[in-house]
Automatic annotation (TrEMBL):
<protein>
    <recommendedName>
        <fullName>Glycosyltransferase</fullName>
    </recommendedName>
</protein>
Length: 288
């Protein structure tokens, strides 16, 4: 118990796991990949898998710590977001309550997973009786919005996201209703930055399918490196949550990483982090 267990969901964008698994591999005790046994999305659509992916996975897994978990994750009577939460719950049960349950999506790339684990270990006491001491651990996304011919548009400030919990009573995807502890860790999130064809498929098959605002895709298609300053409100559900984009003149993820590390705008201020954590502590002070 008290192991570092990381879970991934396997779907139509499974090839991105080749980027998201390596950063977490060394510091994980065990990695679990949930695959629908019929290879269908939460919308019931089939997707194909190139067998060479599993050859890559076997070759990459030099420490034999990756486990495939196959189950039926498509339930026609449920909404996509409820299936999302259900699959994550089943995956976490497979990972084992009593361990740190970390879920990373295939298009999320940790910059310093070892630091995230070091921060997580400060709260190991929450694993002693997790059902009575529920907690969530959050970090911050840098969201890549759209690749252009020579660069990439990204949301111009970090956005909070939950990655770990000690007790997986998920209510919306990987979020629970427990207290959140915020850390200053950064994760690159490729979110919407794919081809138009790939994005259309994602919008029809992900957990947020029924929440996407009708104007989102048209704005995504329209925006580019020449007009992004003239537009605003880019979030796919509540547009104003992502007010502005910025531009980086490269599509090389290593160069983007170095830029983010050196950018003052994309850092998490300590006073902001302290305020968020105090607010969460006070909110749950009398809820035990």
């Amino acid at each position: 118990m008290k192991k570092i267990h990381v879970g991934f969901l396997f779907s139509h964008d499974y090839e991105k796991l080749k980027l998201s698994i390596p950063p977490v591999y060394s510091a994980s005790d065990r990695i679990f990949i949930a695959i629908d046994e019929n290879l269908v999305t939460w919308s019931g659509n089939k997707f194909d898998v190139d067998p060479t992916f599993f050859e890559w996975l076997k070759e990459f897994d030099v420490d034999n710590k990756i486990e495939i978990y196959r189950d039926n994750f498509y339930v026609p009577s449920m909404t996509e977001i409820d299936m999302d939460s259900r699959e994550r719950h089943l995956l976490s049960l497979k990972m084992g309550i009593g361990n740190w349950l970390i879920q990373v999506d295939s298009d999320e790339y940790f910059y310093d997973f070892e630091k995230f684990i070091a921060d997580l270990r400060k709260f190991d006491h929450y694993l002693d009786n997790p059902e009575k001491n529920k907690i969530q651990i959050a970090a911050f996304w840098i969201i890549l919005y759209k690749y252009t011919e020579k660069g990439i548009l990204y949301v111009d400030k970090p956005m909070k996201a939950v990655f770990a919990t000690n007790y997986p009573n998920y209510t919306c995807a990987r979020r629970t209703k427990a207290r959140v502890i915020y850390t200053d860790n950064i994760i690159l999130h490729e979110s919407l930055s794919r081809t138009e064809e790939e994005l259309r498929f994602k919008l029809e098959n992900w957990g947020h399918k029924r929440q996407v605002n009708p104007d989102f895709l048209n704005k995504w298609i329209k925006v580019n490196e020449n007009n992004y300053k003239e537009l605003n409100n880019f979030y796919y559900i509540e547009p104003e949550r992502w007010k502005r984009l910025n531009y980086f003149p490269s599509t090389d993820l290593k160069e983007i990483k170095e830029f983010i590390i050196s950018s003052k705008v994309l850092r998490i201020p300590k006073i902001y982090l302290a305020g968020k954590n105090f607010g969460q502590w006070f909110k749950f002070l009398f809820k035990r």
